[in-house]
Task: structure prediction
Amino acid sequence: MATEAKHLTDLWMSAEMERLRSGPQERAQELAALQADIERQLLELPVEETRAPAPPLIPAEFRAHDPRRKQPAIVIVGAGVGGICMAVRLRQAGFTDITILEKAQGPGGTWHHNRYPGVACDVSSYYYCFSFHLNPAWSQMFAPGEEIRAYLQNVADAYGITPLIRFDSEVSSCTYEQDRWRIRLTGGRALDADILISAVGFLHVPSLPDMAGLGTFRGKAVHSTQWDPGLDPRGLKIGVVGTGSSAVQIVSALAGKAESVSVFQRTPQWVFPYPNEHYSEQRKQMLSRYPELTGRLFEFFAAWYNGEFGTAVVGNRDAQDIFRAACAANLEAIEDEELRRKLTPDYPIMCKRLVFSSTYYRDLQNPSVHLVAEAVGKVVPEGIVTADGTLHELDVLVFATGFQTHAFCQPLNISVAGGPSLENSWKDGAASFESVAVSGFPNLFVLGGPYSTVGNLSTMSCTELQTAYIMRLINALEDSGADTVVPRAEAQQRFIAEMQSHARDTIWLSGCKSWYLDANGTVTIWTRTPQEFRERMLGGPDLSDFAFLPSPKSRDRDPRTGDSPGAGRGLSVSTSRRG
Ligand code: NAP
Result:
């Protein structure tokens, strides 16, 4: 980039950082005006001034497919964030035999399925994207769901992934038999794979409450993922059950539009007030002209989410104090003391997933919106009767009651012939090795499975790191001359012990009920800092934690574990990458 452009972009970026820190104050308005002026100047510079170096096609984290080796048949299940990212990386590395199975009729996963009013991301959009495909055109700080769906579709098209996706293809079972994965689809079709990658995520099996009388409701009852985008809320009395991220978005989108909105709250949430700024056309044009600047915004938000935010949940008390103060101040926006009392949580901030909204409290005070803090007693044909006997009349009932977040890899019914199913082996708690592979299940990789980073971090970023690790394992498999890789059982036990010992310091065990905990109250997400996750994913794998098995003809070991006499024979495994 030429000197003047560099000077102006530096100036713009400093103003952006200061503005984001100063909140909706007078100073922020001054900075915004300064930025608009810089944007105009940048757009007037000659086009040659904008050039940024092109990123390498294959990132440093992994290598290209060895053309002397046979192409493995790779099946990815799920064409959401995980499946698309994995396929891009495999294609960039020269793998060609890739099939993506997707139950829906379009790509995007969560962002394809969730069409409820107000659906949006609550991670800054400049960071909620792949590092290899930044988007200068985001319309808002928190992009609407449809924009993210379109972004993912655009990535799939731009990297040649769309033709690899078989839509309307729901997987019913995956069985490792005769040294390959046999993947069966509902309807009877089947295909085989050398490598199976589950990218189905964990936010897709709806959790529906078992409420008395539910079947008697005369109106329309839907889970948040089943909202009919054609439904006009005007004149309707809408009940929303839940107060998580989905519910809060739905309530704000319907407030003042529907005749009434009744919010059925079981537990109040801490709500972090982050304004959802709209971006000007001038800013979008300027960012698309100066891709380096979009990259710097990505880095800025990555540092914020992985820094203060990502460490607050794993023991950074100073960072927790900052978020607690902001949420407590936000509660002051509630004028009515009784309503404020009902909305005040009695558990530590971030114990449940923090809700981001700068509009929820305002909208709860809209005269047409009613917070119902009494427990739901039963559903009746006219609506909901709460435990105090009050009937809340409703035309539409929306269950924003979340997902079965521990139904990892469901409903894929993964098993090894003659061995346990994945579900069965996880009956006492879901497990993985370093979040991407599972002991006992050869050539199976998992994105968004047990011990992945989640919370309010960017799924895109987490997925990208996991795909880098998986790519290295695939590189190592090729190097080894073997055809199967599986984590050793003792390595997985050691990893789980590490995660559980760190779980004690996390906010998730501070005394609330949340979807981070499984039925036994065990935390099954990454329990160390995001930076440590990054280092583990980019520094790994340590190949001594894996068994690499030779081709079936010369195999003398159990493919589920790799543990038997002759371990190491016929292998050429490189040494540990982790220090
Ligand atoms: P959620 O966070 O699990 O919230 C579910 C809500 O339903 C909670 O308020 C829960 O109350 C309530 N609930 C569940 N069963 C109930 C019952 N039987 N009776 C009364 N209330 C009941 O679900 P979500 O809001 O769909 O969000 C799930 C996750 O999706 C989020 O945490 C996030 O990771 C993701 N998401 C992300 C975004 C985004 O912007 N990136 C947007 C939406 C969702 P309790 O608290 O008492 O259990």
Observations:
- Residues 276 and 391 are 36 Å apart (CA to CA).
- The first strand starts at residue 74 and ends at 77.
